[in-house]
């Protein structure tokens, strides 16, 4: 819709000017720092940072009802910078001018309702939010859109050139980081540090195709992360891991969209999310809290974090009920089909501890739970979900398995509705699907495919046929007729078709 066709009272809010201010706050010493310095950790105590924003002037006094109208009308606005995560401009990074914003089609992902089969299986109605439909096929694009927009803005403002972005990755961060960096290829180059053999072929092909330098190292993600942290402290590089708080604020858009998708009624919603490095759950909690404080939502949804029992440090931490006796211990990970979450020492753990406390306090009750699931449960759930019309990756399967567990444990009950984060597209993890459907899972995963789900291609050989079609030499005349008849007969037999 054209700007002059919007209701007059809303028009002036639709296309925002930069305003307000943003700053880092350390979760360790509570020190505050200017965003003009590109910081990844606290310069005084080394603690982990979060970004905060303050709206100023007229924006400060906008009521929840008006914010809701602004976001709803912005949905109809044909302006690229405000189509993705920056529909919620004032709650993401209101200091970035619109001309610095990079939009590659991320965000506004569909929410798809589970059919009756799945609802019956799980015991409650639920939706998948398809984050696999982002441009690099995972939710990581939300954070990258923000981090690279900010970098773009800073580089323009300060005349910086020849920047290098770098990240450690379980696959999706590097795919996303490389994609957004490639869009700014005049300004910067990108590099990705990956654990050799621990990302899928599809994920490996993504940064290579985007022109990034890919460095494969021995070890698992946690080892790569340590190396990249060392690099970002000692060298001129821009870190794209979720330690970079600009990624977190971008990912908050996932929570904002859920609120808007359900007309801001989230009291009965249960958001289910896999936990790896814990950036995603951090962003989701922080996002809902921001909307609560601005009266855009009246109540906080329940949140269920899910971990595989092959990589479950956060789950173990919360097994202890008494907060004063909790002690965080990294775990040694085992091979997991939820490979993007195969992390034993999550970087965002201090953010999680801080935010769960704040979230539960703001809700006036316990609203966040962490459950653990087996590799078997993850795979079974993913396969069943996709056999019922979804495109969930292993982590989406992990969410569904976690939701089932939460229902069984009584953490969720009748009247509540699940919103499951299908964090990536199934095709990124098709190797796991393939091993399951062909019954070829390596034993270290502990997955036994269910026989009834076995599915491999059926060869239609047509051995009896004298002439077969070959590349570049199509059959003709009688030969083609014989081929068509024989092919149809054999396929009809394979499919058990009745003759008309
Ligand atoms: C990164 C990722 C996760 C884990 O998210 P964290 O923010 O690291 O907790 C889960 N699923 C997919 C597909 C991912 O790419
Ligand atoms: Zn500090």
Any chance you could write out the topology, listing elements then pairs?
Layout: H1 8-14, E1 21-26, E2 32-34, E3 49-54, H2 64-74, H3 89-92, E4 111-113, H4 116-122, E5 126-130, H5 140-158, E6 163-168, H6 172-183, E7 188-195, H7 201-209, E8 213-217, H8 221-234, E9 238-239, H9 245-251, H10 253-261, E10 269-274, H11 279-293, E11 302-308, H12 313-319, H13 349-363, E12 368-373, H14 375-386, H15 394-408, E13 417-422, H16 430-437, H17 477-494
Parallel strand pairs: 5-13, 6-7, 6-9, 7-8, 10-11, 10-13, 11-12
Antiparallel strand pairs: 1-2, 1-3, 4-5
Helix pairs in contact: 5-6, 5-9, 6-7, 9-11, 10-11, 11-13, 14-15
The structure holds pyridoxal-5'-phosphate and zinc ion (ZN).
The site of zinc ion has 8 residues, from loops.
Summary of the model, kept short:
This protein folds into three domains: about 110-135 and about 250-455, Rossmann fold (3-Layer(aba) Sandwich), CATH 3.40.50; about 140-245, 3-Layer(aba) Sandwich (Rossmann fold); about 460-500, no CATH class. It has 17 helices and 13 strands.
* Stretches with pLDDT under 50, minimum 5 residues: none
Helix content: 25-40%
In the sheet with the most strands, the strands line up as 4-5-13-10-11-12
User: Beta-strand percentage?
Assistant: 5-15%
End-to-end C-alpha gap: 52 Å
Number of helices: 17
What's the structural domain tally? 3
Bound molecules: pyridoxal-5'-phosphate, zinc ion
Identify the overall geometry.
Answer: globular
Largest sheet: 6 strands, mixed
Q: Class of the largest domain, according to the CATH hierarchy?
A: Alpha Beta
Helix-strand category? alpha/beta
Could you give the order of the helices and strands? HEEEHHEHEHEHEHEHEHHEHEHHEHHEHH
């Amino acid at each position: 819709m054209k700007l002059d066709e919007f209701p007059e009272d809303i028009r002036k809010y639709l296309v925002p000017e930069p305003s307000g201010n943003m700053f880092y706050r350390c979760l360790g010493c509570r020190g505050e720092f200017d965003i003009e310095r590109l910081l990844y950790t606290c310069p005084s105590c080394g603690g982990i940072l979060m970004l905060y924003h303050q709206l100023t002037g007229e924006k400060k006094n906008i009521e929840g009802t008006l914010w809701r109208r602004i976001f709803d009308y912005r949905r109809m606005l044909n302006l690229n910078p405000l189509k993705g995560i920056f529909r919620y401009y004032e709650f993401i990074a209101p200091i970035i001018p619109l001309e610095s914003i990079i939009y590659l089609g991320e965000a506004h992902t569909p929410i798809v309702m589970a059919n009756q089969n799945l609802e019956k299986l799980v015991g409650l109605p639920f939706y998948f939010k398809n984050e696999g439909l982002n441009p690099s096929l995972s939710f990581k694009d939300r954070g990258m859109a923000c981090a690279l927009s900010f970098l773009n803005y800073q580089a323009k403002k300060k005349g910086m050139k020849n920047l290098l972005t770098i990240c450690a990755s379980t696959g999706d961060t590097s795919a996303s980081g490389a994609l957004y960096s490639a869009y700014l290829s005049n300004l910067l180059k990108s590099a990705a540090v990956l654990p050799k053999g621990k990302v899928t072929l599809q994920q490996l092909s993504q940064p290579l195709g985007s022109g990034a330098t890919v460095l494969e190292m021995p070890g698992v993600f946690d080892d790569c992360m340590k190396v990249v942290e060392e690099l970002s402290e000692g060298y001129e590089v821009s870190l794209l891991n979720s330690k970079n708080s600009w990624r977190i604020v971008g990912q908050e858009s996932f929570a904002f969209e859920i609120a808007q998708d359900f007309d801001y009624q989230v009291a009965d919603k249960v958001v289910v999310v896999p936990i790896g490095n814990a950036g995603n759950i951090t962003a989701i909690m922080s996002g809902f809290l921001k909307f609560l404080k601005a009266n855009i939502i009246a109540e906080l949804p329940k949140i269920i974090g899910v971990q595989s029992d092959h990589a479950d440090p956060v789950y173990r931490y919360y097994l202890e009920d008494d907060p004063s006796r909790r002690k965080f211990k990294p775990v040694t990970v085992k091979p997991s089909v939820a490979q993007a979450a195969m992390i034993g020492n999550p970087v965002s753990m201090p953010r999680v501890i801080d935010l769960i406390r704040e979230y539960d306090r703001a809700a006036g009750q316990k609203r966040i739970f962490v459950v653990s699931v087996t590799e078997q449960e993850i795979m079974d759930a993913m396969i069943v979900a996709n056999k019922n019309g979804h495109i969930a990756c292993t982590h989406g399967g992990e969410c569904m398995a976690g939701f089932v567990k939460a229902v069984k444990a009584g953490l969720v009950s009748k009247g509540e509705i699940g919103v499951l984060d299908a964090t990536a597209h199934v095709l990124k993890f098709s190797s796991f699907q393939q091993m399951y459907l062909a019954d070829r899972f390596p034993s270290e995963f502990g997955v036994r495919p269910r026989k009834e789900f076995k599915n491999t291609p059926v060869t239609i050989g047509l051995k009896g046929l004298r002439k077969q079609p070959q590349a570049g030499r199509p059959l003709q005349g009688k030969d083609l007729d014989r081929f068509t008849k024989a092919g149809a007969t054999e396929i009809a037999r394979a499919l058990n078709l009745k003759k008309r």
